[in-house]
Amino acid sequence: MPLANTQIGAFLKGDLSSALDLVNVLASLNLTAGTAFDNGTSAGQVDKMFSDTRTLTASSSEDLDLTGTLVDAFGATITMARVKGLMIRASTGNTNNVIVGANVAANAWATLFGPAGASGGTLTLRPGAFVVAGCGSADATGWAITAGTGDLLHVTNSAGGTSVSYDIVVVGCSA
Fold first, then answer.
1. Preceding amide of 127 cis, omega within 30
2. What's the topology of domain 6-173?
3. Would you list the domain boundaries of the chain?
4. How is the beta sheet containing 122-125 ordered, strand by strand?
5. How far apart are CA 159 and CA 15, in angstroms?
6. Is 53 helix (H, G, I), strand (E, B) or coil?
7. Per-residue pLDDT tens for 132-175?
8. Which residues contact 50 (CB under 8 A, 6 or more apart)?
9. What is the pTM for the complete model shown?
């Protein structure tokens, strides 16, 4: 089944203003970045997508294996060789933070979050926070995944007491 109409992007808009003696000064910012992907495994293409809302109990963690255990919307097991887009959003109702990254002792997916290991690269998502990462349409590589040695995305509930929920979408290529 082909993957169609896949887009990933982000924007940041803001106006900075200041009232001076005789005039008001305004500096507007409108920055956008995004990519549209076709179906396939080359530059500007993706052929696999995983999406889910997940919940971690208090003080728990999980390792999402990007090569062979994730299941798509139709129940098919997904095996990715490269990630070209990632979005993770912590629920606004969380009390604790959601921590994502390569901080797993073995087989960490470190090409985006590196370095791998117990003190590896992480990103803390406070309640309601989100992160979007995408590669440009000219990028054929994306973030490589190595089955069995570099394929685990580690996600942790930062504290005890309450569970956390998060949404995740991963798009990538099978080859």
1. no
2. Jelly Rolls (2.60.120)
3. 6-173
4. 61-65, 152-157, 98-101, 122-125
5. 37
6. strand
7. 999 888 888 999 999 988 999 999 999 999 999 999 999 999 99
8. 70, 71, 72, 78, 168, 169, 170, 171
9. 0.91
